[in-house]
Amino acid sequence: MDEHTARCAVVGFGPGLGAAIARRFAAGGYQVLGLARDPARHAALAAPGVTLSAADAGVPESLARALAGGADVLVYNAYRATIAMPGPSALDPADLARDFAVNVTGALAALRAVLPGMRAAGRGTILLTGGGLALNPLNWLPAASLAVGKAGLRSLALTLHAELAPEGIHAATVTVDGPVAPGTAFDPDRVAEAFWALHGDPPGAFRAETIFRG
Ligand SMILES: NC(=O)c1ccc[n+]([C@@H]2O[C@H](COP(=O)([O-])OP(=O)(O)OC[C@H]3O[C@@H](n4cnc5c(N)ncnc54)[C@H](OP(=O)(O)O)[C@@H]3O)[C@@H](O)[C@H]2O)c1
Q: Which parts of 37-149 are beta strand (E)?
């Protein structure tokens, strides 16, 4: 890291993975900005080096405003899941669209907000939080909307990776293939290490994905 304190933005700050990723990057020397719709609700989670602010990941203009200061590392962790019983035929198309706006479109809006700064610097890291439903949509039929979103997010991550790696910008996804829960193999702090490790890949050896299986 050089003179300026490196900045990490975590879009979708919450008690599980969001806070753990924020803590991990703060411990690594980053000044972390955590974004949530209702940051006051998460104030008790703001560790040293982490400040919270408001943004709605379903509204591109809101993300652009919140990320106007740029970031050296962007983590997109927000998600929205409509549960439709017993499966996708019961899903209201409007809910699919609302979920997709947070699960995928918001990731694109967020990265487009920070990309000019990363391009000017010739470096940066963009990490998208994926889910196992991207790989196995049949695992939970009522969550078909989230499965569509996570498949879309994974596709976005892999294509971004191919586009941006030659510019020295590392885009990647951590596909979390199991339920995040403290004290388990999917403890949020353990999953957060996978984000930190991907971020540590040197130029020329960027990985596109870590599938976290505990
Ligand atoms: N939990 C699991 O078992 C699991 C498994 C596989 C993958 N994942 C993935 O891991 C990520 C984190 O999941 P988590 O359960 O650990 O959640 P978390 O990080 O504890 O919390 C996520 C936070 O995102 C914020 N958020 C939701 N919608 C938002 C929006 N429209 N704009 C801005 N912020 C928004 C929420 O805060 P506000 O309500 O204040 O906005 C919420 O607290 C997600 O991408 C999820 O799909 C989770």
A: 50-54, 73-76, 124-131
